[in-house]
Design goal:
Strand order of the largest sheet: 1-4-5-6-9-8-7
Helix content: 40-55%
Number of helices: 15
Structural class: alpha+beta
Number of strands: 9
Shape: elongated
Number of domains: 2
Strand content: 5-15%
Length: 341
């Protein structure tokens, strides 16, 4: 590429812009963006990182992902050692073409087939290797959105539970033969253990911690999630029965670990009655529980419906209640004999 010719062309364009009136500039916005996108070749050639990034950040996808422009952006990122950014830009471009029913240009496909190089592989390995050392609260912000999609730690964990419960529903016929809470939790545990370890989290089954409801012995939680040796979430699971049974399980949560900010309650509904009716009964039971003063439920805010934040959850009711400074997430799962949706 002739850098002198690029520089000359750019200077001629700059001089031309100065001669235009404001009205002429306003009527030529589309042209200006097209020319600005072409100026990326110039700024990449002269290594003007600031001007290059400024233009990239304001271009529309149509010009930014143009088959003549994208290789320049991609290669300049690689040249600057921004391998992850280059790969992300390439993937977004391919997604743009596919979502708009456009054929992905050959130049872009060629870049995708050639990527990643050995240097990039080593960088990605380093990043993955460092995930376990990151704070739990930062993991949702680091991971690609397609892995979970939630940025708040509490909703990130909830999303993991929803996905694990969907696996259970996929195996609905086998699951219906199970009649004990621990067996349901075994399936959830197996699914979660395939996902959590990659970012350094562990999930413990029946850990002996805290105190039992009668204060006679160490309690046994259903599932406990830990990050860096710290407890970040407790999961209490049970089959829906009556109000007293619900109360016993809900009040277990703060007795196990009082220091936690968030608890997750999974309720397996096996009743063949209307699913919504059972959910309403469960909500009424939650408000009738005799809570300790430091764990009392906020009746004014009530149940916050979170179901709309998730896709394909027709077999779930998902909500949150606030208990002082703590949050309790309720995942109500339809495991009745009605067909799974």
């Amino acid at each position: 590429m002739d850098h002198d010719l690029l520089n000359q062309a750019y200077q001629e364009w700059e001089n031309f812009i100065k001669t235009l009136s404001d009205d002429e500039k306003e009527g030529s916005e589309g042209l200006f963006e097209a020319v600005e996108s072409n100026s990326l070749h110039h700024f990449a050639a002269i290594k003007d990182v600031v001007r290059f990034d400024q233009i990239v950040n304001k271009l529309t996808n149509k010009n930014l992902f143009d088959e003549e422009i994208l290789p320049t952006v991609y290669n300049f990122y690689i040249e600057r050692g921004l391998h992850e950014l280059a790969f992300d830009h390439l993937i977004k471009a391919i997604k743009y073409y596919e979502e708009n029913d456009l054929g992905v240009p050959t130049k872009i496909l060629s870049l995708r087939e050639a990527y990643p190089d050995e240097q990039t592989l080593q960088k990605l390995k380093l990043i993955l290797g460092n995930l376990p050392s990151q704070r739990a609260i930062d993991i949702p912000k680091i991971l690609p959105s397609h892995l979970n999609g939630k940025l708040l730690l509490s909703e990130f964990i909830l999303s993991e539970l929803v996905q694990a419960a969907k696996v259970m529903l996929d195996k609905i016929e086998s699951v219906r033969q199970i009649t004990h809470e621990n067996r349901f939790s075994d399936l959830l545990l197996a699914s979660l253990r395939l996902r959590l370890p990659i970012w350094g989290w562990t999930i413990q089954d029946q850990s002996r911690i805290g105190s039992s409801p009668g204060d006679k012995d160490a309690g046994e939680t259903d599932l406990l999630i830990q990050a860096g040796g710290n407890n970040i979430a407790l999961i209490e699971a049970f089959i829906l029965r009556d109000r007293n049974y619900t109360e016993a399980h809900i009040l277990k949560c703060p007795k196990y670990i009082k220091s936690l900010d968030r608890y997750y309650v999974l309720i397996y509904c096996l009743d063949q009655k209307d699913f919504t009716t059972n959910w309403d009964r469960y909500k009424n039971d939650i408000f009738s529980i005799n809570y300790p003063s430091d764990f009392s439920v906020e009746k004014v805010t009530g149940f916050e419906d979170l179901s709309k934040k998730f896709e394909n959850v027709n077999n779930f009711k998902i909500a949150k209640t606030v208990h002082g400074s703590k949050e309790v997430f309720h995942l109500f799962i339809d495991l009745s004999t009605s067909p799974a949706i």
